[in-house]
Every structure is written in C-alpha cells, then in structure tokens.
Amino acid sequence: MLYDRSPIYAITHILIGFIAVWYPIIGIGGLIYQVGQLVLNIRAFPFEGKIRKGNNIYHTGLKVAEMGLGYAIGTLLHNRLKVSSN
Fold first, then answer.
1. 4, 10, 33, 76: which is deepest, by most CB within 10 A?
2. What pTM was computed for the model?
3. Burial state string for 34-43 with b = 16 or more CB within 10 A and e = fewer than 16
4. What is the C-alpha separation between 57 and 1, in angstroms, rounded?
5. Per-residue pLDDT reduced to its tens digit, 59-81
6. E strands within 1-86?
7. How far apart are CA 69 and CA 85, in angstroms?
C-alpha cells in the first residue's frame, strides 16, 4: 500500500468510479471533491471523522487513479452486458 490508510478508502474510490459509468454526476462530484481537498491542502477521512492538513498531487492522483480503475471495470462490465443482450 502506498499510503498508510484503511482499505475502505480505496474500495470507496473504486466504487465511485464504477457507479460513475451509469451515473456520471457521481464521478464528477468525486473529482470535484478530490481537487477541492488538494486546493485546500487537506485530506478527509470520513470513516474516522477526521480532517488532516497536508495533501499533494501524488496523493490526489492515487485517489483519482482508483476512481479510474473503478470506471474502467464498470465500462468493461457495461459493454459486456450490452454485447450479451444483443
């Protein structure tokens, strides 16, 4: 793991990306949220109820990449479901 954090956060980012295939506003909101944290130089840990100072492009990129992974998985599944229904 690149950062010392609970796996729930990576799972959440992947799920956001996955759901964004069908509901793009979720993905847009996720991106705005991540960029907002970067601009404010904070990291939010909602499952722990904490906000910590300090953020960087590498950390934000990791979270966005996790969302991208979920989006890729969702897109593959979505396309697979379209092909099998034809």
1. 10
2. 0.87
3. beebbeeeeb
4. 17
5. 999 999 999 999 999 999 999 88
6. 42-45, 50-53
7. 24
